[in-house]
UniProtKB/TrEMBL annotation:
<keyword id="KW-0560">Oxidoreductase</keyword>
<feature type="domain" description="VOC">
    <location>
        <begin position="180"/>
        <end position="306"/>
    </location>
</feature>
<dbReference type="GO" id="GO:0051213">
    <property type="term" value="F:dioxygenase activity"/>
</dbReference>
<dbReference type="InterPro" id="IPR029068">
    <property type="entry name" value="Glyas_Bleomycin-R_OHBP_Dase"/>
</dbReference>
<keyword id="KW-0223">Dioxygenase</keyword>
<protein>
    <submittedName>
        <fullName>Extradiol dioxygenase</fullName>
        <ecNumber>1.13.11.-</ecNumber>
    </submittedName>
</protein>
<dbReference type="InterPro" id="IPR004360">
    <property type="entry name" value="Glyas_Fos-R_dOase_dom"/>
</dbReference>
<dbReference type="Pfam" id="PF00903">
    <property type="entry name" value="Glyoxalase"/>
</dbReference>
<dbReference type="InterPro" id="IPR037523">
    <property type="entry name" value="VOC_core"/>
</dbReference>
Amino acid sequence: MSVHHDPHTGLHSEPGALAGEHRGRAAEPIIKVHDLAWLEFEKPDLERAEAFAHAFGFTTALRTAHELQLRGTDPGSPCVLIRRGPRSRFVGPAFRAADSTDVLRLADAVGGAVVPLPESLGGITVDLLDPSALGVRVVSDMFELPALSDQTPLPLNFGHDRGRVNAPQRPPRAPATVQRLGHVVLQTTTYLETLNWYLEHLGLIVSDFLFYPGQRARGPIMSFIRCDRGATPTDHHTLAMVLGPANRYVHSAYQVADLDCLAAGGEYLLDRGYRRSWGIGRHIQGSQIFDYWRDPDGFMVEHFSDGDLFDSTLEAGWAPMTASGLSQWGPPATKDFLGLNPGRESLQELRAIVHALRADNEFDLHRLRGLLKVASS
Ligand SMILES: [Fe+2]
């Protein structure tokens, strides 16, 4: 059981692909995007969404009767766009192309149209559908919002390395100021087809593959995927994709300055009655210090700090997917995080499983058996 699990088995440094396994990158992608630009949502209650956003550490970039744009302190575009809609819904991600030439090249290749983005953002987009029917925008030339002042990491005394003298440590119990959007995690019934689409169209590359324990020969069921910017290091994952019985948003993650900001910001959220999903801990794939929360619409959002940065030279790692393998330290993964809490969401997932087993996709009985093993491993 998890007590004896050594979290350092299956780390990224473990041997990579076996002969004939997925290489984790396309030979000739159409373009190579630079980053995840923003995520778009619809929510019925913008007031409620904005109150949570401020407690979580976002800054409002724009607020109208119909729209809320949220940003971090980093310069650039807003990183979350929320339009007023009849029900809560994830609309899709936007990826930032290197330049407008790449947006045109991609539009040409798929027979899509390049259209202007809304005036508040500036720039252009080509709107695509991935194989799981999620809308994906590839954008460029937006207005650049200036940098905002940020939380400064605390000066720490590391062991005998004592730089802080005559100064008590007093991290403020304040929202953990969001610096930027880090990644989004998506679940899909057509994992391999959808993964390959992102590798071929956006030039993303796989940092780590996971497979169900005992099912490596059936291929991977999850991947952590980064942008290929050559020698420029990028986040270990900008997108993560997992096979499952329904196409849906899983969570998105936002960088904060350090562990104290993250932990004190967590206390601030608890003080205001918001619900922690899982944390605080340190992941294995990507190594981030993490803390997961539920926003008032039920969407899972993550504060993270100190994540891995890889350049394009590292090949994909391979490891089994287990609940205990989700962190190096921290409390055990919660039922809420694993989607096992009794309630509306798990009932929907159960219905989705029955439907997915009957439909033509990659989620079959072998995969269901693998999925059921993960939570208890
Ligand atoms: Fe995450």
